[in-house]
Amino acid sequence: MIFILFFKSSIRGITLLPFILIALFLMGAETLSGGIRPISDLHENNSLGVPVLLDSIVQVQGIVTVSNQLGNISYIQDTTGGVAVFDIDFVDSVQIGDILIVTGKLSQFNNSISKNDGLTRLINVTINSIIETGVEPEYKVVKASDIGTEGDGGIELIEGELIRVNGVSLSGGSNTWPPNGSSSATDGTGSLTIFSDIDSDVAFSSKPRGSFDIIGVLDQFDVDSPYTSGYRIIPRFTADIIEKISPVFSSALRVVEVGSTWVELAWSTEDSSFGSVRFTKEGSNSADEQKTGLTDGSHKFVVDGLASSTFYYARVSAWFRSDTTLSTEVFFLTSSPPESSVEIRVF
Known about the structure:
Structural class: mainly beta
Radius of gyration: 31 Å
C-alpha cells in the first residue's frame, strides 16, 4: 500500500512541490501475493524443483492433516495439494481436522541443516481465521510408482499431501521402526521410502510381519540441486500402519498334478499364512480336510488318501491373524489305479 502526499512549503524562498512520502505496510517489507491461493500454486516449480513463488507471502485455506505428531512441523491441504508448515506456534495451536485460512512466507530452507532440502513449506505463519474444527481429513490413494515420478522435470503433484499406499511389503531390515530412520518397501509397482519420525509413536514400534497399507504425508529431503528426488512417506502415528488381518490371494488355487490317490495343489498369498485344504467327493455331503501349516507366500500341497477315478472339489482356507480367506474352488478327477488296463474303448 503506497500513500503519496502532495503539499506546498516555503523554506528560504524555495517551494517544495510535490513532496512524496511512501509507506509500505506489507507484513513488514514483504508483499502478499494475490489473495487465497490453491495450495497447488505453491508447488509450481522451475526445472530445478524450486517454487516460482519462493519467498513470497501467500495466503491459503486448508485442513490440518498433521498437527504436532511429527515435532515442529505441521501439514495442511486443500483439494488441490498439501504443504508443510514450519512454525512452532502454529504447531502448538492447531489440531488435525482444523480448517483454517493462514498467511505465511513460502520457503524451502531447512534451518536444521542451514540449506535448501527441497521441501516446500510455509514459515512465519499467521492464522487469519478458523473456519471449522473436528473434520476428518481425506487421503489420496497412490502407488509407489506415483511417488517414483514425483518431481520429474520439477513437477510436484502430491508433495505435502496425506496419501495412502496399499499392499506394501518391507525389504528386510530390523523388526522395529528406526527413530528418524528410513525403511525401504515396495507395493509391486515400484519402491518407496518410509521415514519413521522420532517424535511420532511409530519410532521403536514393531514393523508388520507381512504386507500392510500405510497412510502418511509425502515429505522430501533432497539437499542437492536439482531438488527433484528424496520423496518419502511419513506416517503420523501407529494407526497409519494398517496390518492386514487376513491373507490376500495373489494367485488362484490350481491343480499342478494328479495321481490315482493324490493331487498336488498350488496357490499364492501376498504374505506368509497357515492353510488347510477341504476336499469333497462329487455327490457327497461330507468334506475332509488336511492342514498345510505355516508357509511363505508360495504354497504347494499334496492331498493324499483319495479314491482313484473319482471327481473331487477342493478349496483352500488361508489365515494368519484373526480372519480367514477362502480361495476359489477347483474340480479335478483322480487317475485310474495302477493295476487298471491301459486299454481304451471308444463307443
